[in-house]
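Internal tracking record. Fields below are filled automatically when a chain is submitted to the structure queue. Please do not edit lines marked as system-generated. If the sequence contains nonstandard residues, flag them in the REMARKS field before resubmitting.
Queue: standard
Priority: normal
Entity type: single polypeptide chain
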Amino acid sequence: MKKKLSIFILALMFLPALAFLGCGKTESFYVDVISSWTGLTTGSMGGTVSGSGSYADGSTVTLTATAKPQSRFIAWIYEDSVLISNNETYSIKNQGESGAVSKSELSFKINKDLKGKYTAVFDDNKIVYTKLTAWRLTDDLSADGVEENESTTPATMTTDLYVTQTNLAADVYSAVSFDTKNNVVYHTETVNQILKLNAENPQEIAVDLTISEAGKTRSKLFKAEILFCENVNHLDDESNPYKITYTEKGTYEIVFKLSVSDYEKYLIIEYSNLNVLF
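SYSTEM-GENERATED OUTPUT FOLLOWS
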């Protein structure tokens, strides 16, 4: 009986110490950094990356991207979906002038929300990473869009616009009760969601549009499937009319047609390659 009691007392003495040691264990998170040219025959293009590994929670991670002499660094992307910029979470230090960055360092303090894959995007004329950059409403498809600061036309519409990238279930952009001028271009600088395209599996976007004009409200939900450098024309499809044109300036111009009775309006949105923006 005394022996059992002694073992019990010893267990009571050591359990707090073991619990203390267990609580002191620091969790680690894995960070994977890759080049946008991974798996490709790069030649003189692309670049090298470093910094992959496991990092203790709260420690500083520094990822490095170095462009080859004939290439340049473009941007950092998280999980193929978010464009990273300098902010309270991330610090980016670039070497070289804007548009000719040769080396970039991305630093941040790791936690469970920041683990995962980071891609260093290097230059390419047909880059696969795109971003929503502008939109406009027009009743004349042949007319070029006008910048807002150059337009003296009064707002004639109130617009509710929601853009979603359905493959990632990501809300990209919204304009709510927005006073809209006909054929005026509205830019979306604050958007940081990225659409990564390829030639085999289309990326789908959903566009929920409501226009209030001349005392009437008209709404429609559109969907469009975007393939890398692919042009399509479904404007004659009454259920989901849209058209995609890949332009020489490196943008995907997507046209949606809202047609109700004698009313017709076109929504034009642009997704631009990252190498056009940087």
